[in-house]
Specification:
alpha/beta, Rossmann fold, 2 domains, six-stranded mixed β-sheet, 17 strands
């Protein structure tokens, strides 16, 4: 394959996870028509981009069956509020400034910026965007590209801040996306992106974060190169805890802001870890194989004793974990959820029934619950204990662990 960014033919596959479906929850009649696509990860030695080898069309991934709602996680909603407050203070935002959120989802970040007194606009093609529209938050239900940028500028004006949280890795035509950002920003405008950090993914064995929605996994080195190609530059980076390790990257038109020392420090950290070395990726793939065996053996041991296991919550990353490890209804009695748009449907690929999480707090509660949203363990475990879950938690990654 050719690299998604630099078109190099030198990309090297380092991980093959098999065929996986998109993260679309299905009704029973839909199960027979479900499609799966190859899920494999490649590294490009020419531009340092970690990427998927097979891209699923965006219309399939983010269309009318998209089921992720940002504000369902209370900790993430706090995270969005803090981001808006920090940007408002750092960039002196006022009522004359426009904030555009790309991949605005249910409008949670738009709402946080609006509370700071700014103008807001969301751009999101999924049906979840209707939730923002219903709240009166201006939202365009479409994909953002360089072609849409002039129309947006003409109708709404240029943006002082543009954001893309856990969206930048979803974009199929990255060049068109960045060109559109550059055209839409004011001269002193700032593009703020948050992405799962490739360094954390590799260090923490977070292979479940490799799924079809995320076609790329960013390093600081790659992002510096990317923005430079389109007349922009990375001027600051923050490492943040969301998704068990992400980076918040600030980019601007070249020369608009001084470049922080943090940028060069992270470039050195990436080099020291060996992100440019093939052996680093081979070692990661071997650890993934070892984890699968350990996790499956743990679950088999529990089922052999006649005890029940349910999945607790279902983030998109759980598609990879369950499908790669071959975990289906024979292992999980059900998957519990708080999202009404998932309850009553079946999990992608593995076809496990999704039920209301209230089952965990009554007489039919299972002996074990696998925390599929393990990355927010500190939020979920106390919450479920307080509501009455008396079973044991299983934390699947990075090392399968049982918590009494």
């Amino acid at each position: 394959m050719r690299c998604q960014f630099c078109n190099s033919e030198k990309t090297q596959q380092f991980l093959d996870l098999g065929n996986h479906p998109p993260c679309i929850f299905l009704t029973q009649p839909e199960l027979k028509d479900e499609k799966a696509y190859p899920l494999n990860a490649h590294y490009c030695p020419d531009c340092d981009l970690i990427q998927l080898g097979t891209l699923v069309p965006q219309e399939i991934l983010f269309g009318e069956n998209y089921h992720h709602i940002a504000a369902l996680s209370s900790s993430f909603k706090v995270h969005l509020s803090e981001l808006a407050a920090n940007c408002a203070k750092r960039f002196n935002l006022g009522p004359q400034d426009l904030i555009i959120d790309l991949g605005s989802n249910d409008g949670a970040l738009l709402e946080a910026f609006k509370a700071k007194g700014t103008k807001v606009l969301g751009v999101d093609p999924s049906d979840v965007a209707q939730m923002a529209i219903d709240q009166g938050l201006p939202t365009l239900r479409e994909f953002f590209t360089e072609e849409s940028a002039p129309r947006i500028v003409k109708e709404y004006g240029k943006a002082k801040v543009m954001t893309a949280l856990n969206t930048f890795a979803h974009v199929s035509n990255l060049g068109s996306f960045v060109k559109g950002i550059n055209e839409t920003l004011t001269d002193d405008g700032v593009f703020v992106s948050e992405n799962h950090y490739a360094l954390d993914l590799l260090q923490g064995l977070q292979y479940d974060f490799i799924y079809h929605e995320h076609s790329r996994y960013y390093t600081v080195r790659h992002l510096v190169s990317l923005f430079s190609k389109f007349g922009m530059e990375v001027f600051d980076v923050e490492r943040i805890p969301t998704h068990s390790g992400s980076i918040r990257v600030f980019a601007c038109k070249k020369g608009a802001y001084p470049v922080s020392k943090v940028v060069t420090d992270l470039l050195k950290a990436e080099d020291d870890f060996g992100l440019a070395k093939a052996d680093t990726y081979k070692a990661f793939a071997q650890k993934v194989t070892e984890h699968k065996k350990a996790f499956v053996d743990l679950l088999k041991g529990i089922k052999a004793k006649g005890q029940r296991i349910m999945g607790l919550t279902f983030p998109a990353r759980a598609v990879t974990l369950l499908n790669f490890c071959g975990i289906g209804p024979e292992t999980f009695d059900a998957i519990t959820e708080g999202s009404t748009i998932k309850i009553g449907r079946y999990s992608p690929g593995t076809h496990i029934k999704v039920v209301d999480q209230e089952v965990l707090f009554g007489k039919d509660a299972p002996e074990y619950g696998v925390l599929l949203s393990w990355h927010i363990q500190k939020e979920i475990v106390p919450k479920f204990r307080a509501k009455g879950f008396k079973g044991k938690f299983i934390i699947p990654l990075p090392t399968p662990t049982i918590i009494d």
